[in-house]
Amino acid sequence: MARTPMAGPTLASVAELAGVSKATVSKVVNGRPGMSAATRTRVEAAIRELGYVATVRGVTDARSAFSVVFDTLHSVYSLRVLDGMVAAAQRDGVDLVVRVLSTEEFGAGVGGTALDRAFVEDVAGRGHLGMIVVTTAIESDVVDACLDAGIALVAVDSPNPLDRSVASIGSAHWTGGQQAVEHLIALGHRRIAFVGGDQENPGLRARFGGYRDALLAAGIADDPALVSEDGMGTAGLTVAWMLTLADPPTAVFASNDADAFAAIRAVFQAGLRVPEDVSVVGYDDTYSVVQTFPRLTTVHTSMRDIGSAAVETLQRLHAGGKPLSHHLELATTLVERESTAPVARR
Questions:
Q1: Whether residue 80 is found in the same domain as residue 146
Q2: Are 340 and 279 in contact (CB under 8 A)?
Q3: DSSP state, residue 228
């Protein structure tokens, strides 16, 4: 039966007694390298003194098996990331088991499964050696559970701030925000809106930071009326309201492509044109193969490379190595298409 936090000494209590980190205790428990002989001896003594018993994992076949956890697969972003993971796994002879927390259309937790300690213990019980969590909040108890079970953990675009010990992968959000707004500024725009933000989401907050940096560098005043951080999926109503201002935006930077398309729809519904009256830039390049009208100018994120890097990082961690970076950011590129143009005379 899996050990619960109330059933006896924990990895944290062993770490406290030995005067080391929980990660170091986890390495000792799971027979990994990366410490001096004296440290290993001290940890082993603390384990014996407290009677600590690690979670017992099941036995799998000779191939390594990793769990991949998504909040939902109802997004092109998730599918592109998964595509990169599958390619890397097939190349390296790794088995991936995909788990989806919600089978509903909107978000995790709606008729779905919670990502908690019990979930991690179930993963360990299946004999999986690591876990990649995509666009899903990872709370501290999940991090601790992974350490207890000796499971390597990698986060992809986590929507919540993470413990510094957790390896994470995403795009260069700040730089991407700068690229989008610098493009609009170069076209002569000065009234540039930002929509689809969320102060609680580190990635979206960084995109907004890039937006503000680009405005500041160009000497453009930050107008709170042109900023919305009400979350993804809110751009339609927000842009419709912004267009009623006495001095409305001539351009919109949306934090994601879906909100960019909602912004374009709001512009058309207001009797205006894109890009003749209002330019629109998205983020991620999720719909690059879709022949939309107009075709969307957006910040390209290599989602496939993010997925591949996540698998490579997990394998490195499981082998007892260190990640190339605890927060790996892949480069972004602005892709100019038809939804942006020089600012129109008013």
A1: yes
A2: yes
A3: -
Catalogue the E-assigned strands of 113-182.
130-134, 152-156, 167-171
- Whether residues 209 and 118 share a domain: the answer is no
Least confident of 33-47, 66-80, 176-190, 260-274: 33-47
> Residue with structure tokens 């999720």?
286
Return the HEC string of 150-167. CCEEEEECCCCCCCCCCE
**Residue 228 has which token pair?**
């919305």
Q: Which helix (H) or strand (E) holds 98?
A: strand 94-100
* Domain count within the chain: 3
Residue 153 lies in a domain: yes
Per-residue pLDDT tens over the stretch 228-258? 999 999 999 999 999 999 999 999 999 999 9
Alpha-carbon Rg for the chain, nearest whole angstrom, is 23
Q: Residue 238: which domain range?
A: 173-302
Handedness of CA 102, 63, 315, 152 (dihedral sign): positive
**Tokens 């709606």, residue located:** 110
One domain for residues 292 and 320: no
- The model carries a pTM of 0.79
Identify whether 338 is part of a domain: no
Q: Which helix (H) or strand (E) holds 253?
A: strand 251-254
Please check whether residues 45 and 191 belong to one and the same domain: no
